[in-house]
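Now for today's protein.

===
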Amino acid sequence: MRIGQVFHVFAVVLISGIASEATAQHSSARWIPVTRSELCVTEGSIEQLPGQPLAVNVAKMRAYVNRRTQPVAEARFSYLGPTANEAPLASGEMRRQFGLKLRAQDACNLVYAMWRIEPESKVVVSVKSNPGQHTSAQCSNHGYQNIKPGYSAPVPALRAGDTHTLRAEMNGQGMRVFTDDNLVWQGSVGPGALEFDGPIGVRSDNARLMIDLKTGAPAGPATAASCRGPESE
């Protein structure tokens, strides 16, 4: 066997080991379901009938959990297709997506793990950092940095009616993102992402969704002081 072939085999085994270890660690996590009453919706709306998942039917939805938890979150969601009305991002781009927010201090400072549905299916991790700014009126869509992963894998294209799981975990600067328990993104988000802190949250653009959201164990006070004002990008 040539040296190149040996290296390739070693790389495949190493990556498989990383994914298996990550999945095993997930199985012991303490997950806490999130209900509508525990969400602060800062843009759009989220509905929930008793015993049912969270429902999103608006072009733009932004929300965060009104309690502090560990920086891990999981959403099992059904994608139901595009919203009746669609809205572009602040950049003017039309995008359909759903994602998790970590360390969401406010509209200007947070970490995103986004599953982009259209125009291209992929997972993107971004840090939005705007020191000294706290409202979308101040920062708009500025301060974004898409983070290059150390490891990544493709994700399936989403079709209306599909159900999948999206999970994001941070440990210091290290971050991992899973779809359906498969590791699809792993890397460092950098020290700037630790300069702010906040709760878990969710975001969607132009997608109708049913969502079962869970967070990690509580951290600090059980409930935030109050829901903050509107936020957008």
Summary: The domain at 32-215 is CATH 2.60.120.560 (Jelly Rolls).
